[in-house]
Amino acid sequence: MLAHEMKLQWMVLAVFMVLSKWQHCAAGDQLVPCYFIFGDSLADNGNNNRLQTLAKVDYAPYGVDFRNGPHWKDLFVFVAEILGFHNYIPPFATAREADMLYGLNYASGSAGIRDETGQELGECISLNMQLQNHHKTVQNLIGMLGNESALTYLNKCLYSVGMGNNDYLNNYFLPQFFPTSKEYTLERYTQLLIEQYSQQLRSLYESGARKLVVFGLGKIGCVPGAIATYGTNGSACVELLNDASRLFNSKLLPAIDQLNDDLPDAKIIYINSYRIGEDSTVLDLKVNNTACCPSSAIAQCIPDQIPCQNRTQYMFWDSFHPTEIFNIFYAERSYSALDPSYAYPYDIRHLISLDQGVAEAM
C-alpha cells in the first residue's frame, strides 16, 4: 500500500505541476510548457558524456563562458531562453523524472539520420535511438498523467530537430570509413536521407508532437575542420560540402510541405540555417575560418588549452561549432525571422502563437 500511495501522490503532484505550467504559459511566463530537442553535437549538452566516444566535450576549455551548464551556450540554449525557460533543458541521460514535464534534450554528438553515421568516433545516439528514448519519456508521462492528458500536454510542447550534418561530414565524405559514397551518387544518397528523415519526423508526430521546428543544414563547407580536411582549391570554403547542404535543404522543404499536408494538425516549420549563416556578416566578426581554441584532428578543442581572449570576434569556438555570439544571432533570427527567407512557412514566434489560449481554457 505504501508504494501505491507514493505513486498516487506523485501522480497528483505531476497533474498539479502540469496545470501550473499551463497557467504560467497563459500568463506569459514560459511561452510553451515544454521543449524537446533532437540533434547532433550542435545541441548535445551531455548525452555523450557517458558513452565510449571521442565526440564529447566534458572538459576545459568547454564551458568557460557557461557557468550553469556543462558545455557552451549553443543555439538551443538561447532558443529556450527566448521561450522563457529559466533553466537549460537537461540531457536525457541524466534527467530526473520531474524534468520530463519541462522537456528533454536527446541530442548526441556525431549522430545522424542514418544509424551508422559518426561511429568512426565511437558510440553515439542516432536519431532513431533518440526517438526511442523519447518514446520512453512519452510512456512515462502517460503513466504519470494518463493517456489523454499526456498527449494533450505534449501537443502544446515545442520540438526541434536538427540533423544531417554528420550524415555528410561523418559518413558520405569519409570513404575511408563508410561505403556510402561508393554505393550512391550524392543525389541518390541525399534522397535516401530525406526519405528516412521524413519517416522519423512522422514517428515524432505519432508520439504527440504537433509543433516541430526542423533546422536545415548550414554552410558545412565553411567550418574550419572541413577546410583543414578537404582544402578549398582557392575558394573560401569547401564548395562540394556546401553543394551537399544546399541539395539536402532543397529536398527537405517539399518533404516538410508533404508532412504538413499528410498529418492532421501538424505544424512543421523549416529554419533556413544556410541563409541565416550567409547574413551573419552583419556581426562583423574578424575571424571566420579559424577556431578560437587550439583544435585537434577531430575538430574539438585540445584539452586544457587556452582559447582566444577575444571570443566575440570569432565565428567558431572549435573547428566545427560556432561561438556564442553567432548562436545568439542564429537563435534570434530563427525565433523572429527579420527576412522571410529565414523560415518557412513562418518563424518560431508565429508557430508557438498558434492555438494560444487553449491552455488557459483547460
Automatic annotation (TrEMBL):
<feature type="signal peptide">
    <location>
        <begin position="1"/>
        <end position="27"/>
    </location>
</feature>
<keyword id="KW-0378">Hydrolase</keyword>
<dbReference type="InterPro" id="IPR035669">
    <property type="entry name" value="SGNH_plant_lipase-like"/>
</dbReference>
<comment type="similarity">
    <text>Belongs to the 'GDSL' lipolytic enzyme family.</text>
</comment>
<dbReference type="InterPro" id="IPR036514">
    <property type="entry name" value="SGNH_hydro_sf"/>
</dbReference>
<keyword id="KW-0442">Lipid degradation</keyword>
<keyword id="KW-0964">Secreted</keyword>
<dbReference type="Pfam" id="PF00657">
    <property type="entry name" value="Lipase_GDSL"/>
</dbReference>
<protein>
    <recommendedName>
        <fullName>GDSL esterase/lipase</fullName>
    </recommendedName>
</protein>
<keyword id="KW-0443">Lipid metabolism</keyword>
<keyword id="KW-0732">Signal</keyword>
<dbReference type="InterPro" id="IPR001087">
    <property type="entry name" value="GDSL"/>
</dbReference>
<dbReference type="InterPro" id="IPR051238">
    <property type="entry name" value="GDSL_esterase/lipase"/>
</dbReference>
